[in-house]
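Model it.
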Amino acid sequence: MKNTQRRSSWFALVVTLVIPSLAAAADSWKVDVADHLKLYGHRNWIVVADSAYPAQTGAGVETIVSYGDQTEVLHFVLSRIAESASVRPVIYTDKELAFVPESEAPGISQYRRTLAGLFGEQPVTTLLHESLIARLDEASQKFKVLIIKTNMAIPYTSVFLELRAAYWGDEPEKRLRESMAAQEKK
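Modeled.
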């Protein structure tokens, strides 16, 4: 009886100490994302990547592992960006995503529908995967890039978010540059 009570006490102690620690570790990526967003601004990137995404070596690249479902991670990241007064996302997906057949990658059709729901009315630019990797490589030479790996095991499902200023849009920037160019001609 004493051995059984001792084992039960040890088990209870382990459950009390280990389970909350595992849960905290599983969500630590959320804290990392929130911390990065406090620092990030115009020209930084966040990538919500599939499980086979490579560890890039650019000077400004940091990779974290979420061990989470990709759409849940993406939803979290997009909602945190939406709460920010500083930044907004320009969303890119791999052009190849539209061409991957369900027969070769079961679940891809549902994933595409889920993405459409997550993005809502936000515009999405599609580029070839290698082109997006090249953009990240170039950006990481001067700016920080955060890659969040997920447990997704379907090809061409990574989502690339280029951050831009939330309080200054592309059109005002274009008008500003045109005005400056006109002034220089005078």
